Queue: 4 jobs
Job 1
Amino acid sequence: MCGIVGFVGADASNRSVQVALQGLGRLEYRGYDSAGVATIGSDGTIHVVKKAGRLTNVVDALAKHPLPESSLAIGHTRWATHGGPTDQNAHPHLSFDGRVALVHNGIIENADELASELADRGIALASETDTETAVHHLALELAKDDDLLAAMCRLARKLRGSFTLVAIDRDNPNHLVAARRNSPLVVGLGEGENYVGSDVSAFVDETRDALELEQDTAVDVYSDHVVIVDFDGNPTQGHPFTVDWSVDAAVKDGYSTFMEKEIREEPTAVLETLRGRLGTDGKLRLDSSSISEDVFRRIDKIIVVACGTAAYAGYVAKYAIEHWCRIPVEVELAHEFRYRDPVVNEKTLVVAISQSGETMDTIMAIRHAREQGSKVLAIVNTHGSSIAREADAVLYTHAGPEIAVASTKAFVAQIAACYLLGLYLAELRGNKYVDEVADYLDELNKMPERIQKVLEQEPRITALAEELKDKDGFLFLGRHVGYPVALEAALKCKEVSYVHAEGYAAGELKHGPIALIEEGLPVFFIVPTPRRPELHAKVLSNVQEVRARGAHVIVIAEEGDDSVEEFAHQVFRVPLSTPTLMMPLVTVAPLQLFALRLAQAKGLDVDKPRNLAKSVTVE
Ligand code: AGP
């Protein structure tokens, strides 16, 4: 997820760059590992300043070497997906002939094909990004008719994946062109100047009059008018709206907290994590790996090391990877792993899961593993992070920056990435055929829509939180892959609502925790699908045991599972026919939302809970 801004004014001035930088400052929550701006000078050339690191590095560079006055500017603040956070990989990217500059948000799935077409024409890539393939192809299209809008539409028809593209043409400095598919783009309408942005925070300081653009549309932006077409060049309309949010709310996409915004982004986080994972040979691939396929084939044990929510994603992974790959998977809290003298050798694959990639406990664990001869594969959300750099292989989640201290969208993205790893290993080791892997990927690709559907129950979840806000203890119970979800739900409640909340394996109830059950105690159950009777029946009997002792029973169950109705005070539904192994992707969402609403009902600071930090960089 990156931040994009574009500005077109009537006359050349410094205002172009100023507005672009202001917009990028508002957009840094969308990504901040590198940034850049481009303008067209009176000399008819495109000037670009771009730097790794935060936007301030660009501001500092411009203080020393200002960009020329211009009637337009485009800017980008990056959350890396392809290629680490370096000056070279930062946007804007310049075409081989210097005529076009382009910024991009999204993932171009056919970048490899586009790159080989460029190689055939002798056009080499200067960066590691998928975006650069697009800027060179755009220049090739523009050379055909000098029509930037038509060229952008022809390019858009060539691309697969998700993209918001904004481009400028040095030969026509009076307009910019943008296009979108599966990635956001809005137009801001000013007085004698116009803007584009990833969202309204890009230009809300300048105007509150905006246009929403539909899927597969392109827009030609001048200082005094805009032209909108579909990718076949047919005229179409944007949808006018007035931004009635404060700037602060705009940065949170209109939600009151980053935590809610990020829970709502879970469908996109899963979708983008799954996107573009198949190579041109149709087989799954990692983002980077120095581990040979033979080494992967010789692995006889996997140990997942992580902390907190990331560890619970690892617990889910255990069920899937063991079932698909028939390899034993241990899940260890990173800070425990290192000191228990683990049995690790060259046939052990250590998988480190981390949103920040900077958790010191996890860093120290992978260092210990590597000293024992193990290979390390990292599942991280942050490009260029310490864990990504120190691992032998990396599988990035594409959840975008996670600002709230409580991890939510990263959790589901980590689970999706773990499934990809399991299917990658199963295919490589011959446990699953390509068609079976394809079937699982088809099911995975249905999950974003299913998560979206579950989140529609928000009003009832909010009401439940209001009803339970004075309770001082909560129990979460699940079995099989529902158990890690119970742990995660309990952690969310602890973190943001400061209440005692315990997650347990439902089967453990009779071994002690049932003593906790008393009149009115809220007990949440994650109930497996009835299509897995050996699990469903046991959890249902746990529900009955708890209800019989007076607890306030809340159940997460599959649509159509009426067996839970008579024992539950409230039932929240997850879509029918979700594969059991993938259920955590839908069962966790209502529970995270509940923790959020409970904290809000208590008037607590959801995004910055007491005593906590977003990344624990000390042991
Ligand atoms: C989760 O909500 C917490 N903020 C915390 O448990 C977190 O998951 C843990 O510190 C690991 O962080 P990481 O994913 O950045 O390594």
Job 2
Amino acid sequence: MLYELNVNLDNRSYPIKIGYDLLMEAGKILFKEGLKGNCLVIADNNTSIFYDELRSSLDSNNINSTLTVVDSGENSKSLAQLKKLYSHCIKAKLDRQSFIIALGGGVIGDLAGYVSATYLRGIDFIQIPTSLLAMVDSAVGGKTGVNLDEGKNLVGSFHQPKLVLSDLKTLKSLPNREFIAGMAEVIKYGIIYDKNLFSRIEESFNEITAKNENSSLLAEIIGRCCEIKAEIVSKDEKENDLRAILNFGHTVGHAIENKSGYSSSMIHGEAISIGMVFAAEVSCTCFDLSMDDVNRIKKILTNVGLPICYKSLGWNELKEVINIDKKTVNGKAHFVLASKIGDVSIGHVVDDEILENTWNKINE
Ligand code: GLY
């Protein structure tokens, strides 16, 4: 094992284990955590390639598994897909002692998590994230849910996993663009919580993004992000206040994704990268962030290969979507702003004119 930590939530606490070739040990680890009986593994058509290895490890520990594969992509986070998955739970004879394994990225984690939160009023589930984004963000903290036609994640539940198992080997087959997009969330943790993490990424981004086999540096960086998220979630599981700092860059980031039709022209981490540059510039104009820190943020995002502007989208188009985001209060967007790298605060309402000027400035 390269890195281990715990999410502390009273009787819902759970371990996060990060290592190389962990799928081979998954059965033994699950058995030790007291998980036995039948399980349903939910994967998509990219991540189902990991099932054979997982299954043999589960088999050797007397855990009987069934695989179900959904189409990859955001469209699978739908009510129609949920209905199919509940039928698969019944076919796989899952009872209240059974559990579900999410084997995939954020979409699979959210979907499988919500099935397990609701099937038989809730059964156990395990997160086996296979993308960088899922390892550092969506697999930790218990947010689960599906989309409605009207918007993303509008139906969901907080349901913590029993265990998160991150096998760095799965990142080898992740498309490089997806890996780099995950780096946006990694950099975010540095900005919102840990200036040392930020400096470490600045110093060693080449080594981190090389995805070297058995990389203890990559495990350490992913582990540190999970520690930060675990600490935040332990203090504010249901996002009453502190957890909202995780949304740094997400107000504009989500609006960009929405305006690009959640298409491959702009994937989540790329949109968040632009959203973070926007939030940093606003933080400099009307809060305490120095221009030097704004430039460091832009530089590291550029160095890892992330976009920092989006010239083809006008402010008026973005504004429409920002104003219907579920994080607005009384029709006003509330921004997370930074006072310095490593420190942010929530609930900032910013003048429309400043927002518009900032958008125009970053896209000059
Ligand atoms: N992805 C943000 C959160 O889990 O709260």
Job 3
Amino acid sequence: MLVLVINSGSSSLKYQVRDVEAGSVLTEGLIEEIGMGNGGEGDGEIIGPRDHAAALELVDAAIHRELGDLTLAAVGHRVVHGGERFSEPVLIDNEVTRAIERLNPLAPLHNPANVLGIRAISRKWPDMPQVAVFDTAFHRTLPEHAWRYAVPDDLYTNHGIRRYGFHGTSHEYVTHRAASVLGLPLEEFDGVIAHLGNGASVTAIQGGRSVDTSMGFTPLEGLVMGTRSGDLDPSILVFLGRAGWSMEDIDSLLNRQSGLRALAGNNDMRSVVEAAESRDARAAMALAVTSYRLAKYIGAYHVAVGGAQAVVFTAGIGENSHQFRELVAERLGALGVELDAGLNSQRSREPRVISSAASAIPVLVVPTDEERAIAEATAAVVTAASIAPPT
Ligand code: AMP
């Protein structure tokens, strides 16, 4: 089954055509600067298409140029916010699209762009089955004591203010693979998954389900990230507001000017690690703050799950930076965690154990693949829908 996976941002559209059974990528690409150009060509370059519909025409042309004639079975969309309604991938119809749109206030940068992508496909291929795969869905199993903030109930009931959590597609995919590396049935797997990319979050897994996660109402809470602060005292916002900062200034400060960028002057972990190795004191401090924050969460989630059977690293930093993994593991001595230096520094695309035989808890690296997970979920939903008896 061939599935087109779409990750639609406000000014970009990332796509992959996947063969679900073979687990392979047939072609992929990225259209950028949507809405910023005039839709033409200049200096030999394609300038940003007018809108998402025009971007989709470029995707269609690129797919046919690369792969010739082919029949797509379905389109799978990464949708950032599924609110409280969506706890699993769903077949998209008009009502689902409107429900995603109603969640716009919770994800003002992302959900409107996802809807633009969905509508562009509906207009171009009206009969194409489309599936929405939500970044929040895996965290719908959080117990109330983990998702509630200690604020008046009105904020939750009337404004939907609670912990939702994100990166769910990745956390779920990695959870399945980690359980299988350990030879455990999913329902018996308790562990801590650290998804460390430009955005970063850590999830507590109990019985194969998410029971707590570090991102909250938005993807700002929790770990120190490339340009996001993660946790801080909310009174700092009040203090800045009183000092004359606008909401936009504060939003930009915490989402775009903070994290590694603020601490080390660079939001790219590779550069920060290199700088620290050349004795750059700011870079070393940035690594200390970032690894300490993650180690604190791992300790907390070890307790939350009643004793983790594994700590799992994934995404850009988690999969590639043996130096960062080492810094985190050094802080986990109290849990009896011990890495094998040789295994930790080996590079591989395969899921693997990097702890020593003496480690009280195995430490794993499990490469994530959100597009693969979205393609598989899309195929499963479409297959189930087509064999379901009419109601
Ligand atoms: P992602 O968002 O999952 O693509 O991850 C992006 C992050 O991974 C960036 O901070 C990169 O610097 C980081 N990254 C990728 N490769 C490496 C590497 N070899 N060493 C350290 N960080 C890396």
Job 4
Amino acid sequence: MDKVQELIDQEKQRQQDTLCLIPSENYASNKVMDAVGSVLMNKYSEGYSSKRYYQGNGVVDELESLTIKKAKKLFGVEHVNVQPYSGSPANSAVLFGLLEPNDKIMGLSLSSGGHLTHGHPNITFSGKFFKSVQFGTDDGGVIDYGEVEKLAKEEKPKLLIIGTTAYPLILDWKRLGEIADLVGAYLVADISHVAGLVVAGVYETPVNDAHVITTTTHKTLRGPRGAMIMVTKKGLKKDPEISKKIDRAVFPGMQGGPHNNTTAGILQALIEAESEDFKKYGQQVVFSEKVLAKELVGGGLTLVTGGTQCHLMVIDLRPQKLSGSTVSEALEEVGIIVNKNAVPNDSAPPFNPSGIRIGTPALTTRGMGEIEMKKIASWILQVVEAVKLRDKTELTKIKKEVGEMCKKFPL
Ligand code: DSN
């Protein structure tokens, strides 16, 4: 048999037979996957609609314009670039488009639930080519906006880039917008994790507070792996040239030809996100996450911030004297897939941090709800207990039960 197809089939089976609780993953629809696997990938289209460097782009022009139009409507923004290859390239383009090398940026640190591209020092472009100031959370994992304001006033960054990959509370965009305005900085809201929740109306939109919004398209938005950069009314008011600067930074600044097949996948995802069903999906993601959190806390586990307001939570395993690696590996043995994650002020190294991160977007897409969340919570509690007692005899039984649940919810 053809090796590539064999590997694709194996991965499909793995996804079918396991419970994905990684909050940044999801299952795109067949239509999204068909678009990504289409002939659109054969075409080069450097440039933008009606200003291409290659002939034969009539269809691609229409596709890209339509995708931009849909995104503008869905997110209520003034300008959209749908060409970034993914989230990190999107954030790079914004920083290079709006700043000069060595300008100062400020962001939420990775270990407090931010992202590498938000100024992580020394090893990332955002920390090497710009002066980076990072803020964190208090010991409970909560952002102290007073402290953020104080730091911004002291450091006077030119740009605040803020978004979350492991922060379980809804960000106060209004406050962040005010802080940016106070020091005359751009506010870039990276909503990659929560874009689908924003569209569904269950997570605050930054559209009135940020100048620029970036997002990946494959997380809660449930599209292909890609990204968008959006400019708000506030952004245009601050800097009438902002859209042009960003577009130039994407192409020719950072990238060559856009991945037109991805653009088609994004358009399909945006069409799906317009539906009433998608609103219900967003509501169910958050509801299920809260059910899961309540059960896990009831079972004796400690959550960063004590709970969740969105699609994810972080379990702090320090009170259990366990590491994120040990627990995530044991969960994988029973077919529950999570990822290890740092907790606030974690003294453990990033590759073996003290927490795990758990989210419901993928399982909600599979149609799971409250009953399944309660069962999954009991399995997680049992696995943690088994790891603590160094007794894995129960794991085979749990694995079988996980497999039975997976069968009831086909991809
Ligand atoms: N890698 C993503 C996540 O898992 O949250 C963030 O880019």
